[in-house]
Amino acid sequence: MATNSYRVAHTNATTENLDKQSSSVHQNDVARHAALDLTLYSVVCGTLKAAIELGVFEILAKAGASASQKSLTAKEIAEQLVRPTANGTAVNSGYLQRILRLLASVNIVSESVAVVAAAEPGNFTSYNTHHQRSYALTPIGKYFVQAEDGFSLAPVILMGEDWVFKKAFDHLSAAVLDDSVDPFVRAHGKSQFQLNNDDPRVDKLFNAAMSSHARIYMEALLGAYHGFQDVNCLVDVGGCTGASLALITAKYPHIRGINFDLPHVVATAPTYPRVEFVGGNMFESIPSGDAIFIKSVLHNWDDEHCMTILKNCFKALPSSGGKVIVMESVLPDSINLQYENGGVKPMLGLRLDIAMLAYSSGGAKERTLHEFQQLANVVGFASVALITTIDFFSVLEFTRVAA
To answer: Is 131 a catalytic residue?
Structure first.
């Protein structure tokens, strides 16, 4: 009996050890794969940029809208590419197919494969078989079609992958060791906004990215947030040329809009119904309204500057109430790798936070809800409420008087 008991115990112990070893091996496999994935992280964005520059998504969108043809092979796409010069060389459809396959692996395009067999000339017993691959846009890929109405994330990719902006990351580690000079300034000798003023190409690249990004999220905001219903006069602080306010007043015709930005910015703005343009400096004063909208502005500034902006917002609201509607990324208090509450949302916000560190100056950053509440409390707002979140952008309401 003792021998049998020993054998059973020994067998159980051996099995348990094997299970632990197997689990450890599996964890190592997963960790190694994840680490290797990071080494090639940037390849997807670089490949996506190439596809945008080639006009691949527009070609696929046109095919997808056709009743007769929904997908195209790399060769069929290559035949439609616009070449800057005709130098006698053929477009390399093999290169293009490799680009498309990677994009298919991340669900930007879909891939269909058909096995094609063709007899070799003069040899009826031997066949060449090959896989004919065709591609179509996925719902994700449609966001990279450079449409005229501005609904595209293509300009955001073109900006982020441009050498001017990528070069700032070469100086990220240096800024950690010496924060007297920001990464972008280290890279170019001037701030990003100064470079925009000096270089029309960079300015156009940046403005196209910001406008496209804003247009997409304003449409999403108007579908998810209903806090404009009780607003009669809305002031958009840092509203650029008024595109956001125009969308709001189009949905809520009872609203009178005041688009507030620097004088030289509003001077180039188009005309919109029920939208008045006012030039000025948000660090000095802000036009009065019963509500103020401020989107993707506070993350450009450190806490001291943010408090100055919010104090001027506070003064611009009626003493009997009013609210500031803030649209910003809200960071999580801690990192949860189980992806709770939508998961991808805080991860995207953390990436944006590092982009602000690389591109911007003077303490620009994303903030947690607690940090927004601290800013609001110092200024004198009665409360801060997170109303809704769209992807990684949240809508906050800073109320002047307690309900």
So the answer is: no
